[in-house]
Structures are given as C-alpha cells and as structure tokens.
Write a structure and sequence with these properties.
Elements: H1 4-15, H2 22-31, H3 35-43, H4 49-58, H5 76-96, H6 98-102, H7 113-137, E1 147-151, H8 159-165, E2 168-173, H9 176-183, H10 188-191, E3 194-198, H11 203-207, E4 211-216, H12 225-238, E5 239-253, H13 260-265, H14 279-288, E6 291-299, E7 307-316
Helix pairs in contact: 1-3, 12-14
Length: 321
C-alpha cells in the first residue's frame, strides 16, 4: 500500500505542487495498490502533459550555440575570495537549517525534521546504492579495505552508508556546523571508521591523504566554476592509481555566464548558489590526472530545472609511468 508521504512526494516531484487537500491524498491511498500505479496515473494526467512537453523539448539543448563566457580558472588570490564566500554561506546554512541545506524539502527543516529523519537518512542509502550499481556494471569490485573520501559530507546523510562499505572514510566539508552533526551521526562501531576534515582553506586539499574512492554528490554545484575546477583537480590528484571517482556536477545551463571579477563585485545572494562547470573542462581535468572516463550519464540531482547535470565515473590508471 502507498502512504500519505508517497502521494505528497509524487505530486511534488511530478506536478510541482502539493495535493489539493487531505481528501485527495486519502482517495489516492485507497485507489492505488502500489507506487507504480500512482506514478503511471500522474504521468498520464493532463496536468503533467505540458511538463513532459517542456522537458522533451528543452531539457537537453546541447545543440544550441553557447557563448564561451564561463571563466573556469583564476588567480590563487581570487580563488581564496571565492571559497571565503562559499564558506560564509554554508556556515550560516549549517547553523540555521543543516538538513534542509542538504535536501531542500520543507520536511527536512528543523521544525519537522524529527518526524522525517528516517526518510532523510534513507535518501543517503539510495545514493550509496546508486554508486555501487555504477561500479558493479563497470566490472569494478569495491574492496572494504579501501579508503573513501566523501567531499561535501554535510550532516552525514551518505557518510553513514559509505562507512558500512569501507573501513576508512574521510568526510570533508567546508562547514564546521555540518561536520559537528556528522560526528554525532555514527554509532560506536562505525565512528572509528570515519575521520572528519574541515576544508578551511584551499591548502587543505593538497594536504589530504591519498585515497582509493572519491564520492561527491550535490556538492560541487554550489561552488563557482573556478572553484569546482580547482577542487576536482586537487581531489583527482590525491586519488591512488587504480582508484575510482564518482561525482556529480551541472555541466550546462542555457544563458549561464560567469565572470570572476563581476561575481565578486556583486552582493552575495541570500541562499545557496547553483553553478556550472562545462563538460569539456571535466574531461580535461580527468585527462590531466590520468583518469579514464568509464561512464557519464545525465541525472536529476538539480531537480526539475533549466540545468543539465551529469554524474561521472572515472578510474585512475594503474601505472602512471
């Protein structure tokens, strides 16, 4: 049987709104035997038709001419200014609404999180399973003795599940308030497997220990392009030969521009930012760090939006001679 939350999330994800009232929710619970029936009904509804048309017509505008106005590198001094702005934003979000800042659903705000904390943690298990499925279909065997680095661990949503897979997990985040919650997430048997590292400066990236697995989902997108480029480059540099990298980043948004000087002159936005790193740049960084591209697929990690987001699976060459 489907639950009240199943109906609400179905309406949110497919129709972009809440159900009209409680009567509609109860009727759906009584009518549909499983999630498949509910989903099919919503997909075939008249209300979803324009959404489907918009998606099919505009979701992947890769053939449109895109002016090259995205700066993907800058001086070390400007990089420091960029990361300082990111740190201020995420420190504040971590203090005000830590779980909502990771997954922006109202259920995960402080006022209601206690009732939905199990749902929140289950989303982390989904992302860990998705990672495992990608790796398995590419013929890679995950070894428990490997060290996994999670960049942007937030409140430990996925970290918990990675610690079940690997004996050593390095959980990194720019926000100390998020890291504090991550430390509180683990029972005793898993806590010993996790070490938390605060990315308090760009220098920390070069000081990280080498690792075998890189995992980063819905994190890089909140950094300006030069920072995404720099962070990804440094992380792949620390990846051991034969290691794998599984990460997500938006690679296209129609009309997106980024100029470092202009960005720093503007007043910071009051909330989280969303940015793009062109796919070509991702490939260049991978090649420079001797990583083979095993798989790249579009994903829904930016939600129904004008962004195109991609998940990447890379493997570093065994021999770098």
């Amino acid at each position: 049987m489907i639950t009240r939350d199943d109906v609400r999330y179905g309406y949110r994800l497919l129709l972009g709104r809440e159900p009209e009232n409680n009567t509609v929710v109860q009727a759906a619970m009584a009518t549909y035997a499983n999630l498949q029936q509910l989903r099919q009904t919503l997909l075939e509804s008249r209300e979803f038709a324009p959404v489907a048309a918009a998606v099919s017509g505009n979701r992947f505008p890769l053939d449109l001419e895109q002016p090259d106005l995205i700066e993907v590198s800058c001086s070390p001094q400007l990089l420091q200014q960029l990361i300082a702005r990111v740190e201020r934003t995420w420190t504040r979000l971590g203090q005000e609404e830590p779980h909502w800042s990771v997954l922006t659903l109202d259920d995960f705000k402080n006022a209601s999180f206690e009732d939905y904390q199990d749902v929140f943690r289950s989303t982390g298990q989904y992302d860990a399973h998705r990672f495992a499925a990608w790796v398995k279909r590419n013929g890679i065997i995950l070894r428990p003795e490997w060290t996994c680095l999670e960049y942007g661990c937030g409140t430990g949503r996925v970290t918990h599940w990675l610690a079940k897979q690997f004996q050593s997990v390095i959980a990194c985040d720019i926000s100390e308030s998020h890291l504090a919650m991550t430390r509180e997430t683990f029972p005793g048997d898993l806590a010993a497997r996790v070490s938390c590292v605060r990315i308090e400066s760009l220098a920390v990236l070069s000081q990280l220990p080498e690792f075998d697995v890189l995992f980063s989902i819905i994190v890089l997108q909140h950094n300006p392009p030069p920072l995404i480029s720099y962070i990804l480059d440094k992380l792949l540099e620390r990846l051991r030969p034969g290691g794998i990298a599984f990460f997500q980043v938006p690679t296209l948004r129609v009309g997106y521009r980024f100029e470092v000087a202009k960005y720093l002159e503007e007043k910071p936005v009051d909330g989280m930012e969303m940015h793009v790193l062109p796919q070509k740049r991702v490939f260049e960084i991978a090649k420079r760090n001797h990583c083979d591209l095993l798989e790249v697929q579009p994903d829904n990690k930016t939600g129904p939006s004008e962004f195109i987001s991609n998940t990447f699976l890379l493997q570093k060459e065994e021999s770098l001679n």
